[in-house]
Structure prediction request, 214 residues.
Amino acid sequence: MRIGILGSGLMGGKLGTIFARAGHEVVFSYARRKEKLEGLARDAGWKARAGTPAEAAQNADALLLAVHWSRVDDVLSQAGDVSGKVILSCSLPMNAEDTALVIAHTTSGAEELAKKIPQARVVSAFNTVPSEVLFGVSEARLKDRRPSLVYCGDDESGKAVAADLIRDAGFDPVDAGPLRIARYTEPFALLVAQLAYEGDGGPELAYRFERFEE
Ligand SMILES: NC(=O)c1ccc[n+]([C@@H]2O[C@H](COP(=O)([O-])OP(=O)(O)OC[C@H]3O[C@@H](n4cnc5c(N)ncnc54)[C@H](OP(=O)(O)O)[C@@H]3O)[C@@H](O)[C@H]2O)c1
Prediction:
């Protein structure tokens, strides 16, 4: 696949590198310095390059939205027309201090994002995992007992793309249902962050949803 990274920080930088190493063509975009994007592309290998958000969006099979909530409008305006594109969003609707969700209960960041870009196919994914563990999970590539990663969205073909990329990153994709379920996965992401950074779980905390059978 051709994957555009909109926001090449902790999440976008790592996931873009993992996708490029898994064989996808990746364009890193949106950082404050062009040299950072070029460095990421160099480290990720020959499948990756640096570009503008518009270049990342051009011909992309999937776009990863990985910016702070306050930067969503800016990066989308730079990306241009995203009609028909699969947008995997790991962006959480956080306040400026990153201490609380600014949207919850009756809607979600993912649903508000989908309203901004109604022609795009928004899938909420990768926001329930701390960036620190992404390389470890992808390198371990466990066959059984992979950590679970929940995702949700309203477009089935977009969700199939997301599930492939979640598997490529070393996780077991768990379809949580339509996009409105992001109302529950976004607060769940804060629980994971709380356990990872302030509890005694640590960022390497892994979770699996197990099926109990007789
Ligand atoms: N980090 C996590 O563990 C984690 C986990 C789950 C969900 N999330 C969510 O994922 C999203 C991304 O998080 P993150 O930790 O990856 O954030 P981040 O490291 O701050 O990355 C954001 C990217 O946006 C770029 N950026 C910010 N302002 C810009 C501007 N004015 N012009 C151009 N580029 C600009 C940053 O550039 P620079 O590289 O130059 O700073 C960086 O590349 C957030 O919504 C967060 O809530 C994060």
In short: The pocket of NAP is lined by residues 7-12, 30-33, 36, 66-69, 71, 90-92, 94, 127, 130-131, 189 (CB under 6 Å). DSSP finds eight helices and eight strands in the chain. The first helix runs from residue 10 to 21.
